[in-house]
Amino acid sequence: MEWILKGLKSHWPILLVSFALILPVALYGAGYRVTAGGFTQVGTLVVTGLPSGSTVYTDQARRTYSANGKATIDLLPGTHAVIVDAPDFHPWDELFLVHAGAVTELRPLLVRAALAPRKLTGEERTRAAAVILAWTLPTKEAPLSMKGGCALVYVLDNRIVAEASTTPSCAPPVFLSCETEETNGGDLCSPTIIFSPNERLESVSAFPSRDDALVIAAGGSSYVVELDPREPQYFAPLMKGPRMRSAPWSEQSIVISDTKQVYELPL
Q1: Where would you tag: which of 52, 68, 115, 160 has the fewest CB atoms within 10 A of its CB?
Q2: pLDDT on residue 8
Q3: Cβ pair 242, 229 in contact under 8 A
Q4: Residue 61 phi/psi, 5° resolution?
Q5: Rounded to an integer, what distance in angstroms lies between the CA atom of residue 71 and that of residue 48?
Q6: For residues 95 and 75, is the Cβ–Cβ distance under 8 A?
């Protein structure tokens, strides 16, 4: 034991330097970064559903080039901005919150910049036109169920409004105007305006296979709008025509009419 103590005393400078070098490396490998307040544990952003060749930016810095449909990025806790630049698609951007030691998963809403509508004819056109005609604007009494059933979306005074569901298992989406009720520990949520177009709304439906975005037709335009109204709210144009109306058609498409023609539009 005595010779061990002597060795430690004689080599303590080397041991101290080695420890100082090894500790940061070990902490870095464990997911910690040096910040003004000391060592801070990072969180992980996972972006899925990326087309081949997508570039992902976080906080305006290029982070990764995706070849396998998925990007994984370590970030310090807090609010960050992400941009997904995918070939042939409109760029998608979003603000998101990272928690220390937790994984935040995002699936970007990507809309093709050059759409390929398929003109319908014959019996298929008749059936699609009937579907469009029967599709009515959602109301407070008959709303669209979005965000896993936790947000109810409807049209009021030509505005698209969302409010929290009363389902007990639902947590209100973060973009709704909610305050904690001190008496029973629940949340009191007010209706939140999602989108207010300048022209009269003709149709509103959920984006195919998603519950966080809407397909809207108003006046002579149809477009996609993200449900979360906080800036930056994602917006992508679809088609223009004399008077656009649309309705859900399949898991990957809608049907849309400009009063003269009826099309199936893959999304």
Answers
A1: 68
A2: 46
A3: no
A4: -110, 130
A5: 7
A6: no
* Look-up of token digits 């109204």: 229
The pLDDT confidence band at residue 169, using thresholds 50, 70 and 90, is confident
Report yes or no: 58 and 27 within 8 Å, Cβ to Cβ: no
- Token look-up 């305050």 returns 179
Helix axes 2-10, 12-29, angle to 10 degrees: 80
Tokens 């709704």, residue located: 176
The predicted-structure confidence for 191-233, as pLDDT tens digits, reads as follows: 899 999 999 999 999 999 999 999 999 989 999 999 999 888 9
Residue appearing with tokens 């928690």: 99
CA 133 – CA 257 distance, rounded (Å): 10
Q: Which amino acid is residue 50, in one-letter code? A: L
Q: How far apart are CA 166 and CA 238, in angstroms?
A: 33
User: What secondary structure does DSSP assign to 121-150, as a single string?
Assistant: -HHHHHHHHHHHHH-----SSS-EEETTTT
C-alpha of 106 from chain center: 6
Q: Give the CA distances from residue 234 to residues 83, 187, 237, in Å, rounded to whole numbers and listed in that order.
A: 11, 27, 10
| Residue pair 84/56 in contact by the 8 Å Cβ criterion | yes
Per the confidence metrics, is the pTM higher than 0.90? Answer: no
Cα 112 from chain centroid? 16
- Local structure of 16: helix, strand or coil: helix
Kindly report, residue by residue over 174-198, the tens digit of the pLDDT: 888 776 654 444 567 788 999 999 9
Tokens of 128: 């699609």
Residue 87: cis peptide before it, omega within 30 degrees of 0: no
d(CA 71, CA 51): 11
Phi, psi of 132 (to 5 degrees): -65, -45
Stretch 108-114: mean pLDDT, rounded? 94
